Amino acid sequence: MKKFNKFDDKFNIIGPQIKSIRKAEKITQEDLCARMQVLGYQINRSDISKIENCNKFIADFEVLGFAKALNKSILDLYNLKK
Questions:
Q1: Chain-centre distance for alpha carbon 48
Q2: What's the Cα-to-Cα distance from 10 to each of 14, 22, 50, rounded to whole Å?
Q3: What pLDDT, on the 0 to 100 scale, is given for residue 4?
Q4: Is residue 30 part of a domain?
């Protein structure tokens, strides 16, 4: 059985930033899903919604995929605002 640690009751800390970048670039969840799939990631629109709402764990290689799909650096995804 997999066990993931949570931070402040969240499974990831970059989901809101992914959502913010996606919306600023006028990219739909479906479009982001398609971009990720072209890069070889098995992800669906529901997964993206869960990630953006911090309800799904993101592996390090998936962070790289989101950065590539959004044409941003990994550091842009960790640009956390308080």
A1: 6
A2: 10, 20, 11
A3: 63
A4: yes
